[in-house]
Design a protein that fits this description.
heterodimer; A: alpha/beta; Rossmann fold; 7-stranded mixed β-sheet; 19 helices; globular; B: alpha/beta; Pyruvate-ferredoxin Oxidoreductase, domain 3; 6-stranded mixed β-sheet
């Protein structure tokens, strides 16, 4: 039976069919749907771990225990997990261990455009790259098989266009005995204890394994020669292979399914068989540099850009500019220039609990320097708030704020971090502040979920990935246990309350934490009622527009005195009584709950 | 067989993702090779959403090549205009007659395109333009959420696939308690288009 699956759904299906017993991960676009789909299979234990490193260690432990394990994360999640998969390459595994990274060329939802293929080479583990959903599913089985046969973790690397594209997949059955009990741990400290004394013996094993895998790669069935015309030979993998097949229908192809280690003999055979060798790859010249190091001449990044998605249009244009395609290929494809149109950039939703904090930090408290973090509250950097000054990586806000402190900046400053991000990487820097006598103010925006990636659970959400109940970890208790004494917990929808807490915390001579507490609209109680603007009382002061609420719109009616547009509230978007920030800040009390 | 390329655009929350899922599933049920690619913004409400769907004998790329869109199905006027330049010279546009103002417009920093601009752009870009009162039809049926299936009904009347295939895919894909409502929505959209044609 064939089903239409996204790459992420196909990977989850592969985990089911190929006998994965334990699946872990931390949410991150474009990887999140893998684990959400795995959670539908009762046969697989799955969890959202507190961060990618923890997820990696849990999967490694399960693989040591002779269970097939899979761990999923987005591109930058691999940076967090790196410390752990590096040791697992040395120790090896017992049950298969598949590490899935979903990269984000084009940076649809990431802070950089890192090319995680380098991690395969850096950590010395084999890597597979699917080019459609069928391969995404198949490569889960192939990868787990390689992992067990070669005693190594295997990297499965997708990109957004694989994870979020759908194509037909042939479905199979689960191929393992779920009733078989887990055997006792096979104790082997000389292999599994990476003390320097013993790990030294493992390094030659890793090098030998890689060398033999490189030899095998030339006969690996998913590295495939597709002979066409011999004038042009193209090396490609992933979605780019399919784009190139459409653009160069006559060319010869070397389609790589395993992109590390590379099949040296096969590449040599291909290069000898064609007049011109072209490497088409997204982001870095990962294949190109290795092919050139083999002494084989090819073209690659001198033709195609290293930045952004290598979409079909980009390939066509670049190849035409380099004289590889005729110029006519790109002429007049675009019919008409679109008129000048307003953009539709993301904004905080109506009813968002983060709005009060950024309204204050962007207006009344705009002198305050804001070290931001990863989450929806990133939108605090954009108009109308323009409040956030720095943002780099998960949990970075707290350490960066402490850096401002010890550097001695004269400005008042805060770190702003979400609940899931605080658990992920915000606790160690808070301990650092306390231990080293820092005086930073840390604002924890607790919206009771991991909102930006689609509302996944975390340690203070009383429900697990599969829907089972979970204990609720108390953020305030963790903060107090860290040694912070100046702790304020305020209702996110009480603008004055948030303002008071921020001012007190900033004034305190020591480390402070403000927990701004209020559920994300999507996990909250839901909308009731709507607010309205009394147009007699509104004088168009525009203060409510600074809330950046999509429900507050400009009226066509102008204030008689100053000819400023008055405010109006869109009843479809307004969420009513769960948020009345606009009514709270209106200086003329012109906003009221409609009857 | 020529590949048939669809671009389905709109604003997060309008049901475009389910619509592109259905178009792709219909293609598969009609024994085409099918690929689909969605671009979603953050998980916040109100962002622009674009779905690519392709039907053909053998489809390689999940992305419609530049300037080869056969059917642009826009759930919102501005999100239709934004992609007009991706149409083939003889392409078809289906636009739901609904304006959703981005915050830049509602807070007065930008202007929503006026009727004249919209009309001129549509006429210049496409050979066949259908301006569909999709939201009105959905609301008449009692639920604005069936807008997506109304528009699919209209699209179905232009395509060489049995309506029975569309109906069974729609029944399969929508929430069970809304199956009948969605079936009505599908017929409503299809009838509208058949009257036009």
């Amino acid at each position: 039976m064939k089903a239409l699956l996204s790459g992420n759904e196909a990977i989850a299906r592969g985990a089911y069919e190929y006998g994965v017993k334990v699946a872990t991960g931390y949410p991150g676009t474009p990887s999140s749907e893998i684990l959400e789909n795995v959670a539908r299979y009762q046969e697989i234990y799955s969890e959202w771990s507190v961060n990618e490193k923890v997820a990696m260690d849990v999967a490694i432990g399960a693989a040591y225990a002779d269970r097939r394990a899979m761990v999923t994360m987005k591109s930058v999640g691999m940076n967090v997990a790196a410390d752990s998969f590096f040791y697992a390459v040395y120790t090896g595994v017992k049950g298969g261990l598949l590490i899935v990274t979903a990269d984000d060329p084009g940076m649809f939802s990431s802070q950089n455009e890192q090319d995680n293929r380098h991690y395969a080479r850096f950590a010395k583990m084999p890597m597979l790259e699917p080019s459609d959903s069928q391969e995404a599913k198949d490569f889960v089985g192939v990868g787990l098989g390689l992992s067990e046969e070669w005693d190594t973790p295997v990297l499965l690397r997708t990109v957004m266009r694989i994870s979020h594209s759908a194509s037909p997949v042939e479905l199979g059955e689960r191929t393992c005995d779920d009733t078989a009990p887990t055997p006792p741990l096979e104790r082997n400290p000389r292999k599994l204890v990476s003390t320097c004394l013993w790990a030294r013996d493992r390094h030659p094993v890793v090098e030998e394994r890689l060398k033999r895998l490189g030899e095998l790669a030339s006969t690996f069935p998913f590295n495939r020669l597709e002979w066409g015309e011999r004038t042009l030979g193209i090396v490609a993998s992933g979605p780019v292979y399919h784009y190139a097949r459409e653009i160069f229908p006559e060319a010869s192809f070397l389609k790589l399914g395993m992109t590390y280690p590379l099949p040296t003999a096969l590449i040599q055979e291909f290069a000898t068989g064609v007049e011109q060798l072209l490497v088409i790859e997204e982001l870095d010249p990962f294949l190109e540099e290795q092919i050139k190091a083999m002494g084989i001449a090819c073209r690659g990044k001198d033709v195609f850009p290293a930045c952004g998605e290598l979409l079909p249009a980009v390939i066509e244009r670049s190849a035409a500019q380099a004289g590889i395609l005729p110029q006519e290929a790109i002429k007049a494809k675009r019919q008409v220039a679109p008129p000048d149109l307003p953009g539709r950039s993301p904004v905080l939703c109506p009813g968002c609990p983060h709005r009060s904090t950024f309204y204050l930090l962007g207006n009344k408290l705009k002198k305050v320097v804001v070290a931001g973090d990863i989450g929806c509250y990133n939108l605090g950097a954009l108009p109308p708030f323009n409040a956030t000054d720095t943002m780099g990586a998960m949990g970075a806000s707290v350490g960066v704020a402490h850096g401002f402190d010890v550097a001695g900046i004269p400005d008042p400053f805060v770190a702003v971090i979400g609940d899931s991000t605080f658990f992920h990487a915000g606790i160690p820097p808070l301990l650092d502040i306390v231990h080293n006598g820092g005086k930073s103010t840390v604002v924890i925006l607790d919206n009771h979920t991991t909102a930006m990636t689609g509302h996944q659970d975390h340690p203070s959400v009383p429900m697990k990935l599969g829907g089972q109940p979970a204990p609720k970890v108390d953020i305030e208790a963790i903060v107090r246990a860290s040694g912070v004494t100046d702790v304020h917990k305020v209702d996110a929808f009480d603008v004055k309350g948030v303002e008071g807490a921020l001012k007190e915390a900033l004034a305190f001579d020591g480390p402070s934490v403000v927990i701004v507490d209020g559920p994300c609209f999507f996990v909250g109680p839901g909308a009731t009622g709507v607010y309205e603007v009394n147009s007699e009382m509104c004088n168009g002061c525009a203060l409510c527009f600074r809330l950046g609420c999509p429900a507050i719109i400009q009226s066509e009616e102008l204030d008689a005195k100053r000819a400023r547009p008055k405010a109006e509230i869109d009843p479809v978007l307004c969420v009513g009584t769960i948020c009345n920030m606009c009514a709270q800040i209106c200086p003329r009390q012109a906003i009221y709950l409609a009857e | 067989m020529e590949t048939i390329n669809f671009l389905i655009t709109g604003v997060g929350g309008q049901g475009t993702v389910l619509a592109s899922d259905i178009v792709a599933a219909v293609g598969l049920a009609a024994e085409y090779d099918v690929k689909k690619s969605d671009i979603l913004g953050l998980a916040v409400r109100g962002g622009a959403v674009v779905g690519h769907v392709r039907w053909g004998e053998r489809v390689h790329s999940p992305i419609v090549p530049e300037g080869r869109v056969d059917y642009l199905v826009a759930f919102e006027i501005l999100e239709g205009l934004r992609w007009l330049d991706q149409l083939r010279p003889k392409g078809t546009v289906l636009v739901n007659q609904q304006e959703i103002h981005p915050v830049t417009v509602s807070s007065g920093f930008a202007t929503y395109p006026g009727e004249e601009t919209v009309d001129k752009a549509l006429q210049a870009a496409a050979t066949h333009v259908y301006r569909i009162p999709g939201l009105d039809m959905a609301q008449e049926l009692g639920n604005a959420k069936v807008l997506n299936v109304v528009l699919l009904g209209a699209l179905s009347a232009l395509l060489p696939v049995e309506p029975g295939i569309w109906e069974s895919v729609v029944r399969e894909r929508v929430p069970p308690r809304f199956v009948d409502l969605n079936f009505q929505a599908f017929c409503r959209g299809r009838d509208w288009m058949q009257e036009k044609e």
